Structures are given as structure tokens and as C-alpha cells.
């Protein structure tokens, strides 16, 4: 917003200028919390803000003439910055003139000379009085004390300045009055009216009765700024009707002691030819016009002079590049900032005028920002789309300012905007399903698998913590089997695992970042327990107490190949650890029996002799593990005369007992478990392929 106030000069410090809180539409108590700051564009501090009352106060006494000189308007520009949200307001304070200065002539006494042969209507220019006040408080008119020979004429110069001249109304006679004493009074238009006077002494001279005449008396010249030094501005056209020395004219600048005139430093005057040239570079931005007064004096006795007034108006050229001022920058900005969020406040100025001073700003189109014009020469840089720190952590923003002059001038300013991270990315796991293998009976603390995850966020938003979830699939909490390092995601065993009890585990792992709110992802690690040969074979049949022997009778005349009995054994392990082989332990004497290595069937190997004593056999059952485990059973085979060759009888298989039923159940469970493990492995392979 832009506010405008006015205040009279010379008011006491502490005087109220305007009610900021009311005009801005904000509550007074919020001014302090929003860190209100007042910035003067000119560098000098003339105002202050009463935060308690919300009003703009004078900090020092203002002198309009010292601040703005002879400018028709006098404005002081302030910038009011408030935060939360960031806002910039422009304040323009007009300093109003009061009639605090009286007109004053450069000299208290003016001495003029006029020839006695001067014709009525002859003009005698007078010094212009000076009044620092402006407008109606400046010089309004001049008055001349009554005289029968002289009257006062007032001309208006090109810049509006009133120039007094004394006009001869009645022919002079030096022999009657040689010197005339008059009083010139300058009056301003203030209320009350102020005035200043100067004594005018006119000496009546003889002889040279034609003054130099400038044609035209008031002229105007247009000149481009920055023309080379020595450029001809104009050549004065002055004529003097006299002859000889009385018509020989010399030129000089007309200045006053109090105000020597700035133009004398910029222009030179040839006293013989009347040529006016530049002697220093001209700058439109410093002054757009110059008023030059030239005195043309002849060499008569007494000398007569004429006055030429030249107004030099400069034509602005585009010789100043725009200037970019970064008033405020909010860096870093959160990546979730909504479109339209104010990022920076940018001011621009160009000392040229017209089209040469019209400036426009632009930034690269591919940036997610745009420039919004707040008010004249002030812009806001706002977001124009979503920001993503993971794609761009910052932007080098180049603001380019171009004027409308010809040739065009441009300047640019680059600043860096950092994008602050917000927790908008959940941890990214390398795979939602992983497979690991661990040997049974491995020591507690054995490393099983390392879950790998990453988070594109930064700082605490990317700090990851791993944990194991309870999925309810096992009767016992999964945490009693495994633990995970919360920092690196490595899974360790808590206790020794038993393949015969649990062949596979589903370990759900959650990885969570430290953002607010925290985001998480989960993965399932299928841990397969690898079988170890930790179970010796178990004799299922014949079922006898430990340390006892199994007695079996066969016919005395059993022929070779006769099936004596069958040893049935099982192994709780799996795979090659459960492959069983049967063999007879070697004895001192050869036995007429043999055992099938794979089936465990014991058969007669050779014909038996009559009245043969019972035979004692030790059958060893061994698995295929590494190292191999074994168990043995003792059989006592007794040939009998009246024994009948009955296969079922010779096997002498007992009826099913509860123990046999349990063993059968264990076998069924083992087969089902192996089938389930196979299905899970096929599912994992299929998931990986997909």
C-alpha cells in the first residue's frame, strides 16, 4: 500500500504526522510483534513511529528550503516494513511551505547609471530579490518609491521569476538633478506579507546615449546532455547604434555576490564574440535547465549596457542504467510453500526521465517464481508453482531490469534462494520383500540380514530408525527370535533356532524417519532356517526299551531270501540329513543274515543248519549328514522247528500304540511343513520376477 501525508515545515519534533495503524488497517498492539521498521529512502531520518499509539511522528524539525531548495514540490519518501507476513508500505510525506523567509536583495544598495540623453522608455534592469519560500509565499511583486522621472516595470522570465526594471518616463537633465535616490521594495504573497528593500541610486551621465540591445532579450535553446565539452550553445545577437568605442560591446555573465550562479562552472562566454560554449559535461539528472544572464556593455563614457537572458533546456538521453535494490529476502523458504508466497521485495530506480526512466523487470521463465508489481518501481517476487527440495535445493535467481530508452540499457542482480526441507518423503526400502537364510543352532547375536533404506529428505527428516513389528503370525512374539539394530537395520538372532520347530519366519520391519510428522515404510524379510544334522535317527520299529534286545523267531529251515523282519527308523532332520542307511555291525564270525541298506529289511543270506543257536545281530541306522549321526538296535534271531514261514507273523508288527501315532503325526507335520516352505519360496521367486 502507499500512504500520503502532509506536514508544515518548522513544526516541533514529536508532532503527529498521521495515524499509521488506522490507515493501514492493523491493530496497534500488533505493530511491535510484527517488527515494524521505518526506512528513509534519502538516508536521513526525520520521522519515527510511536508503536504504542500507532502514529507517525516528527523526529526533527523540517526546513523545506534546506530539504528541497527551489523545487515546486517537496516530498520525503519512506518505506515501512512489517513482518509475519512480510509487507512493504510506501509513505510519501509532503512538506508544506510556510512564509518564514522575507525577500532579500543581493545587495542592500544598487547603483545605476543613465545618460542624460536617454529617451523615455529606457529600461534599467534591477537585481532580482531572493525568497527561499515557494508558491504563494515567494516574491509576489515589487514596488518603487514615487518619482517623476522613473517608474517600475515587472517582466516574467521563462521560469516564472519576476524581474523588476526601472523605466525612464520623463527626459532627464543632469544639470538639474545629477543623482536620483529611490527605494525598491520586494513583497511576497504570504500571510502576513513579508518584504525586503534595497536603495537604488541612479547617476545621470552625459554622452553615450545608446545602450547595447539584445535581440531577442529572452531566448531559449535546447541542448542534449553529455554533449562534448566546447560545444557551441548560441551566439548572442547584440547591437549598439553608437559608433566607435560607444558601439564596441563586451560580454560578461551577470551574477550576484550571494549567488554566483552554477552555470558559470558549466558554460563559457567569449567576451568579444558573445559565443556561449560548454566547458564541463552537462547532466540532465542533476539539472534539466539553466538560466543564463549576460551583460552586454559598450566602451562609451559613460558605458551603457544591455541584458540578454538565455534559458538552456537539456534533452535527456538514456545514459543511466537501471538500479536494482533488494529490499528484503526470505531465505530459506519451505519447499511446501503455497503459490503466491512472497519471497523477496525488490525496488528499482532509473535516474533518467520519460521512457528512458521506465523500467521493467523479468526473471527466467523456467523458474517457479514470478514478479508481481506492488506499486510504482516496487515489485514482489512470489512463488509460481510447487517447490521440491529433492529436485532443487536452491535457486540462483537473476533479476534483469531494462529501461525503455534507445539504445536500451539493462542491469541484472543475482541472489541465491535456499529451499528448506519438509518431511514429504517416506523412507524408501530397497525391496518390500527380502529373503534371508540362517543355520539352525546358530549362536545368539548372529547377523541374519541387513535391511537397506534411504530417504531423499535431509537432516532429521532423513534420520532413519529400524524396528521389528509383531505380525501375529507366530504364537510367540517375533522379538523373542530376532532383534534389529535401530541405526543400521541389521537383523540379529536372539536365541538359537530349531529347524525342526520353525522352518521359516516372516520378520516385518518398519523404518521410520525423525521428521514431524514422522513417515514410515515396511518390508517383510522371510528368514529361512537351514537344517543342521542335529538329530540322530530314531528306531520306530521294533519298539523296545533302551538297552533291551528284540527277539525274533524264524523257521529252522528258512531258505535264503527269507524276510526275517524290517527295521523302521525316522530322522527329524530333513534333506540329505534325513537320508538313512542300514548296516550290520561286523562280528568275529560271519552271520547268515543281511540287511537291505535302504529299506532296513533283514533277510536270510544262507541256509541255516539244524539245531543252530540263536544269532545276535546289531543293526546300525546312520543318516547322511555331516557329521553323520547313528543309532543301533539289537536283534536276537532264534530258529525253531515248528515255526511257519508267515511274513506277517515273522514281522510280528505290534498294534498301533499312542507313541506310534505321535510319530506318524510328526511325519505328516514334517511333510506339510516342507510343502509350505516350498510354496513360500515359489511365491517369493514369483514376486521378485514380477
From TrEMBL:
TM regions (residue ranges): 663-687
InterPro entries xref list: Cadherin-like_dom (IPR002126), Cadherin-like_sf (IPR015919), Cadherin_CS (IPR020894), Cadherin_N (IPR013164), Protocadherin/Cadherin-CA (IPR050174)
Gene Ontology CC annotation, any one: plasma membrane
Keywords: Calcium, Cell adhesion, Cell membrane, Glycoprotein, Membrane, Repeat, Signal, Transmembrane, Transmembrane helix
Domain Cadherin: 1-105, 106-214, 215-324, 325-429, 430-539, 546-656
Membrane topology designation: Single-pass type I membrane protein
Domain of life: Eukaryota
SUPFAM superfamilies associated with the record: Cadherin-like
GO annotation, biological process: homophilic cell adhesion via plasma membrane adhesion molecules
Pfam families linked to this entry: Cadherin, Cadherin_2
Cell compartments where the protein resides: Cell membrane
Signal sequence, renumbered to the chain: none
One term of GO molecular function: calcium ion binding
PANTHER family recorded: CADHERIN-87A, PROTOCADHERIN GAMMA-C5
The protein's role, per its UniProt record: Potential calcium-dependent cell-adhesion protein. May be involved in the establishment and maintenance of specific neuronal connections in the brain.
UniProt-recorded name of the protein: PCDGM protein
Organism: Pedionomus torquatus
Underlying gene: Pcdhgc5_1
